[in-house]
Amino acid sequence: MNTSSTTSLDTETYDYIIVGGGTSGLVVANRLSEDASVRVLVLEAGADATKDPRIFIPGLAPSTYWNPDFDWAFTSTPQKQLGGRTIAHSMGKTLGGSSAINMGMIIWPGRVTFDSWKALGNPGWGWDESMVNYIKKFHTYNPPSAEVQKRVSYEADESAHGTSGPVQVNFGTDYMPYHEAWAPTFKAMGYPLTGDPVTGVSSGAFISGGAIDPVSKTRSHSAAVYFNDEIAKRPNLRVVTEAFVEKVLLKTEEDGSVTAKGVQVRTKDGVLREISTAKEVILAAGSFKSPQILELSGIGNPSLLQLHGIPVVIPNINVGENLQDHALIPFNWEVAEGASADIIAKDPSIMAAAMEAYQTAKAGPLGQNPLVSSFIPIDLSDAERNELVDTQVAAHPPETPAEAAQFEQLRHILDIPNEPTAQYTFAPMQLLSRLGPLPSQIFGMSHDGYFVTVVTALNHPFSRGSTHIASANPTDKPTIDIGYLRHPLDLELEARHLLLLEKIMAAEPMASLLKPRGRRIHNYDKTEPLADLEEAKKVARELVLSNWHTSGSCAMQPLEKGGVVSDKLLVYGTRNLRVVDASIFPLVPRGNIQASVFAVAEKCADVIKGEAGK
Ligand SMILES: Cc1cc2nc3c(=O)[nH]c(=O)nc-3n(C[C@H](O)[C@H](O)[C@H](O)COP(=O)(O)OP(=O)(O)OC[C@H]3O[C@@H](n4cnc5c(N)ncnc54)[C@H](O)[C@@H]3O)c2cc1C
């Protein structure tokens, strides 16, 4: 398929112009163009790198990070609450977007978050109402074999999964002793798996699937499956890569409403073009770029727009606010003598053997997802947890209507007995926050010795950040105030979960796989576990990293409650400008969010189709 041609790009007519050919954008493009009478154009700033092994071999993902050919490579402003640290944020700049460069984990969201989206004023977005079906719709589940399930102590509930969706969810066969010890260790500590996580209510540890094709062992990302060779033949679907959209062209109508007439885009040949739409413009540029495009187009906080000389078309102070992420805090343990863990990434000959196995037999670690996960409640009684929540929220009450509405929902979620408050994820590698901020430093595996990592992430964070234009120049990166651990409740919960993790990793069978009195990088290479709450808070601030689950910056919420788009995804004040990417999540669902992004985009497509039929 040729996505680089610009021939007659500005003279053709399109019903829908989709900005961003990433995770959500290609889902929506695929579904809208199922109707042969509907003409769809996708404009993607990155190139088509789908044939590049760094994209299609799942295990090579980190080689794309901070590489300008694949990654927007954003950096946050210095974070006061983190001692002035800056945080690096990768985001896919390539056909397929972040799904083409991500870690590939498929983790199922919780039902409580979608139900709270509904309660926030989004009818139709609840779990039972629709989202459970869209989760099934986007994927095909390829369960691990019975032998593997037994080995890793996992029982798949196939009936709850998708059977014919585009994204392939697959498991591996080459699990390490750590993977096998993962679920039994949590069980021994009183956290048995209570059901298949796809049900949206379970807790406990489990082996997680990856977005990987079970036959070719290639990455099952949005460009590979929603825009495959077959779909690309549709005459009514056109995808143009290396096409950088600078702004949406807006017209204020006589009745005061605003119509999106098209977009201004600079194509690969350097030409600045205006492309018209017959019906709608749909933003799918991701949680940093969609709000930036809105602001560049004149939709946003009037004082910010005026500061940068941008005429205000629709004033809305909520654009770019409400930024959320689960954040992650990596802890690293030295492994037992003779055990292999991060060795694949450290020893070139082992990496070469892994590549050989992949290329010759589609075998070995590069074609399977090595990360496994768990959802665990805080180890406090209901009364203790309620008191902690009450005290901390009273100390840092909501500051905006959006926060007021959201905190009410979050408190309701935290009231649910045994609701998992954190996700622990195991990774057979080093994650070295203190060497950061750059991914090459964090993923550099440069610590002497061999280690495994478990990262801790909060499922329902209260901290909020923001992202805004830094100037009127579309090519300038947006400013990102990420806000990790800014809310004191997040710090309290994180610190307790970190201490709990130390206890879990000291339990059998995991304990025997770690070096007796081995070093802990998180505890400054000491051999003792971290055991003090205040010390855990200090370490949390030092180690917290992006979990790449940024969302919420164009929140789907009523306008008076701090929203940017309606439950029909329409940007408030416009007739035909929508947003469909992770930025619309009013509250971030638990777990790694690509499953939620795919499911939400599937629903967005139906919402748009339904609206078009009216
Ligand atoms: C490094 C990394 C690892 C991750 N690991 C996991 C994981 O293991 N599991 C998981 O579930 N989730 C993971 N995630 C999160 C998940 O991949 C993202 O949340 C999700 O893919 C975001 O989808 P999106 O549609 O919102 O944005 P994207 O998929 O990022 O799509 C946005 C697209 O818009 C394009 N674009 C932006 N601006 C413009 C413009 N001006 N003009 C034209 N095009 C533009 C971008 O180039 C991009 O292709 C990870 C993310 C990253 C970055």
From TrEMBL:
Q: Which UniProt keywords apply?
A: FAD, Flavoprotein
| Keyword Flavoprotein listed | yes
UniProt-annotated binding residues for FAD: 23-24, 245, 548-549
What cofactor does this protein call for? FAD
What InterPro entries does the entry give?
FAD/NAD-bd_sf, GMC_OxRdtase, GMC_OxRdtase_N, GMC_OxRtase_C
Classification via Gene3D superfamilies = FAD/NAD(P)-binding domain, Glucose Oxidase, domain 3
Which residues belong to any copy of the Glucose-methanol-choline oxidoreductase N-terminal domain?
286-300
Instruction: Give the Gene Ontology MF terms in alphabetical order.
Output: flavin adenine dinucleotide binding; oxidoreductase activity, acting on CH-OH group of donors
Q: What SUPFAM superfamilies does this protein's entry cite?
A: FAD-linked reductases, C-terminal domain, FAD/NAD(P)-binding domain
Recorded hits in PANTHER family, A to Z, give: GLUCOSE-METHANOL-CHOLINE GMC OXIDOREDUCTASE, GLUCOSE-METHANOL-CHOLINE OXIDOREDUCTASE N-TERMINAL DOMAIN-CONTAINING PROTEIN-RELATED
* Family, similarity comment: Belongs to the GMC oxidoreductase family.
> What is the name attached to this protein's record?
Putative aryl-alcohol dehydrogenase
Origin species: Lophium mytilinum
